[in-house]
Specification:
The protein is an alpha/beta fold. The protein is built from seven helices and eleven strands. 28% of the residues lie in helices and 20% in strands. The strands form two sheets. The protein has an eight-stranded mixed sheet with strand order 1-2-11-10-7-3-4-6. The protein has a three-stranded antiparallel sheet with strand order 5-9-8. Helix 1 crosses helix 2. The structure holds 6-phosphogluconic acid (6PG).
């Protein structure tokens, strides 16, 4: 199990919890997601989640795919998206969907008709983004809100302060109309085009959970959580995820939290 070493509250809904290491962070995040899914399904009959990519969530996904969490989840009520994707084949090691498939989706009884990978096989990033936006709108139907409201969006944090594929200095940061846009890569690898949910969608979510582990994230986490500059980036992209009408949770390990002390 896991022991939360400290909780830092920005408000009653914005909670940052510090865990000894990535394993404990992943266990705590798994428990949070299972509980969130149970409550959401009880209330709405379905749970619409956007997974994050990168390496940090792999352990979380493996935990969700195994006991005790696997059998606690009503997988058939899950609708699964990917919050951002590298425009590469799913078989490519850089594919976020490929990682989620290997670590989670291939091991749990989700309904394939309720799993929505980004259609990178279509080729150009702009077309891929357009199609994915259409898919999101189809699944949400005529949303009663201006923006489709994901029940939970998982996010990571890059050492440059990016989140999803919203990179410092890129036009995607200013997108105010589209749900999904294409974007060139940032300074961090892999150097491939990306497709990403935009800030209006992230901030419309009912809940967002950041997963942040490792000393290399300490400066970026400080900038993102405290809304401080990072190098010559005055406001890092992750700091712009504020979820005004939802819950914002940070699951971090002690190494990443060193910058908060
Ligand atoms: C991506 C991810 C990205 C990731 C961060 C952290 O497609 O690259 O969605 O936003 O979450 O870069 O990645 P790590 O977990 O590998 O540090």
């Amino acid at each position: 199990m896991y022991v939360c070493r400290e909780r830092i509250f920005m408000s009653e809904r914005d909670v940052l919890s510090i865990y000894a290491d990535a394993e404990q962070l992943s266990s705590a995040a798994a428990a949070y997601i299972v509980e969130k899914a149970k409550a959401t399904i009880a209330e709405h009959g379905r749970f619409i989640i956007a997974l994050t990519g990168g390496s940090t969530p792999r352990r979380l996904y493996q935990l969700l795919a195994a006991s005790p969490w696997r059998e606690q989840v009503e997988w058939s009520a899950w609708y699964i998206f990917v919050g951002d994707e590298r425009v590469v084949p799913f078989s490519d090691a850089a594919s976020n969907y490929g990682m989620a498939q290997q670590s989670l989706l291939a091991h749990v009884p989700v309904l394939p008709t309720q799993v929505y990978p980004v259609p990178t096989e279509l080729g150009g990033a702009a077309l891929v983004a357009e199609r994915y936006e259409e898919t999101i709108l189809e699944v949400f139907g005529a949303a009663e809100h201006e923006w489709p409201r994901f029940d939970l969006i998982l996010l990571g944090l890059g050492s440059d302060g990016h989140t999803a594929s919203l990179f410092p200095g890129k036009p995607a940061l200013d997108e105010a109309e589209r749900l999904v846009v294409a974007t060139p890569h940032g300074v961090l690898p892999p150097p491939v085009e990306r497709v990403t949910l935009t800030f209006p969608v992230l901030n419309a979510a009912r809940a967002v959970a950041f997963l942040v582990a490792g000393a290399d994230k300490a400066e970026a986490l400080r900038a993102a959580y405290r809304h401080l500059p990072l190098g010559d980036t005055m406001i890092v992209p992750a700091a712009r995820v504020t979820v005004p009408d939802g819950e914002l949770r940070w699951f971090v390990d002690e190494a990443a939290a060193m910058g908060l002390k």
